[in-house]
TrEMBL record:
<dbReference type="InterPro" id="IPR016181">
    <property type="entry name" value="Acyl_CoA_acyltransferase"/>
</dbReference>
<keyword id="KW-0808">Transferase</keyword>
<protein>
    <submittedName>
        <fullName>Acetyltransferase (GNAT) family</fullName>
    </submittedName>
</protein>
<dbReference type="InterPro" id="IPR000182">
    <property type="entry name" value="GNAT_dom"/>
</dbReference>
<dbReference type="Pfam" id="PF00583">
    <property type="entry name" value="Acetyltransf_1"/>
</dbReference>
<dbReference type="GO" id="GO:0016747">
    <property type="term" value="F:acyltransferase activity, transferring groups other than amino-acyl groups"/>
</dbReference>
<feature type="domain" description="N-acetyltransferase">
    <location>
        <begin position="3"/>
        <end position="192"/>
    </location>
</feature>
Length: 192
């Protein structure tokens, strides 16, 4: 089967909602973990987080991509300019920008989250989603794409892989730029 990857837009929103399910993926997160400041995220309910992601899907620059197999949504990757994921840019996070990098530079993008349908985890879909995410970022002017994946998960179907697996990024040509916490490297790929 081949993976058909499309932007998360108002048109594809019903597919993303179906993929995330009634809980909103990852315990009602609706991919808000890096998009919202912690206090705001904690104050919002599941429905409010869903509404914010739906609103983002209606913007000219989509918040991520949805992977389909045989017309069914099976995976998601959040890929945006760094400025769209403010939690990524705080001084205390392992994903904070490298010294001298401006997190508001529209040429520096982040691949911050993955979500794979439970029945499809461990099948390697993240490779196709990552390839599409890099192509999407490139098409929208990215010079650099960064990620802060996990080096080792307990198993290939672990929900902890929402940040992606370091080995997947290595295979896609990313290299370690910094490691501020063991097992959580900041990886980057220079595109131009």
């Amino acid at each position: 089967m081949s993976l058909d990857v499309r932007p998360a837009t108002s048109e594809t929103w019903p597919a993303l909602k179906a993929l995330f399910g009634p809980q909103g993926a990852c315990y009602g997160c609706w991919c808000s973990y890096f998009r919202l400041e912690p206090k705001l995220r904690e104050a919002l309910g599941r429905d409010e987080k869903e509404a914010l992601l739906k609103q983002a899907a209606g913007e000219p620059l989509p918040p991520g991509l949805i992977g389909f197999e045989n017309g069914e949504p099976v995976g998601w990757v959040q890929v945006t300019p760094r400025a769209h994921v403010p939690r990524w840019n705080t001084r205390r996070t392992v994903s904070r920008p490298l010294e001298g990098d401006d997190p508001h530079d529209p040429g520096i993008w982040a691949i911050s989250c993955f979500f794979i349908a439970k029945r499809k985890r461990g099948e390697g879909l993240s490779h196709g989603l990552l390839e599409a995410a890099v192509a999407h970022a490139t098409a929208h002017g990215a010079r650099v794409v960064e990620a802060c994946p996990i080096v080792q998960a307990k198993h290939s179907k672990s929900v902890g892989l929402f940040v992606g697996a370091a080995s997947t990024f290595e295979r896609a040509g990313f290299s370690v730029a910094a490691e501020r916490k063991a097992g959580r490297p900041l990886m980057r790929k220079v595109l131009v």
